[in-house]
Amino acid sequence: AQSVTQLDSQVPVFEEAPVELRCNYSSSVSVYLFWYVQYPNQGLQLLLKYLSGSTLVESINGFEAEFNKSQTSFHLRKPSVHISDTAEYFCAVSAMDTGRRALTFGSGTRLQVQP
Amino acid sequence: DTGVSQDPRHKITKRGQNVTFRCDPISEHNRLYWYRQTLGQGPEFLTYFQNEAQLEKSRLLSDRFSAERPKGSFSTLEIQRTEQGDSAMYLCASSTTQNTEAFFGQGTRLTVV
């Protein structure tokens, strides 16, 4: 079984400031790691994923996340946020060696970007 | 639009009524997932289909819930004798056997009054 902990339920930040959203996971098997973003009354959109290889992964809109196996973490960062980044962010894992690929999500972090 | 489609987007029902939601996955996606998301929480896995076979059900899926995927295309999720605790966003996602990524629909928001 897997579990995901997102340590911050809300993160207020000013526009153009850097931000880090924290994610830790627990699993008895190897996992794939994901960050999803959810805008109000919308479904989830994949932001980025770690499958294997380089531990630093990047999205097209400036977010990056680094997989740290020893700390079982997958923190999300952005060096300079925009108002449009205001949304709920979910960290998720799925077991690597099973077929089902169902996701286990954290409880989410609400990023509030203020002007 | 070739994304995952869910219908309806919103449903208000009285306690004790039955409701049914529909999900149309991305064409040729053989895997389909249902999740439930309550306010302030992340989505929780409910059930999973590969083609028409329901391969796994979460313990969250009580006997009032039933899901089907006839012919391995669209899926329906039915809730019988709804309770106020069923109020949530119901999300559908689809993927292929090869994909590690699931694509989500916009969800159906259920309010039980």
Question: TL;DR?
Answer:
Chain A is mainly β.
Q: Mind explaining what this structure looks like?
A:
The complex is a heterodimer of chains A (115) and B (113). Chain A is an all-beta fold. Chain A has no helices and twelve strands. In chain B, strand 4 and strand 5 form a beta hairpin. The model of chain B has no long low-confidence stretch (mean pLDDT 93). Chain B is mainly β. Classes of the chains: A mainly beta (115), B mainly beta (113).
List the helices and strands and how they pair.
The complex is a heterodimer of chains A (115) and B (113).
Chain A: E1 2-5, E2 10-14, E3 19-21, E4 24-27, E5 31-38, E6 44-50, E7 56-58, E8 64-68, E9 73-78, E10 87-95, E11 104-105, E12 109-114
Parallel strand pairs in A: 2-12
Antiparallel strand pairs in A: 1-4, 3-9, 5-6, 5-10, 7-8, 8-9, 10-11, 10-12
Chain B: E1 5-7, E2 10-13, E3 19-24, E4 31-37, E5 44-50, E6 53-57, E7 65-68, E8 75-79, E9 88-95, E10 103-104, E11 108-112
Parallel strand pairs in B: 2-11
Antiparallel strand pairs in B: 1-3, 3-8, 4-5, 4-9, 5-6, 7-8, 9-10, 9-11
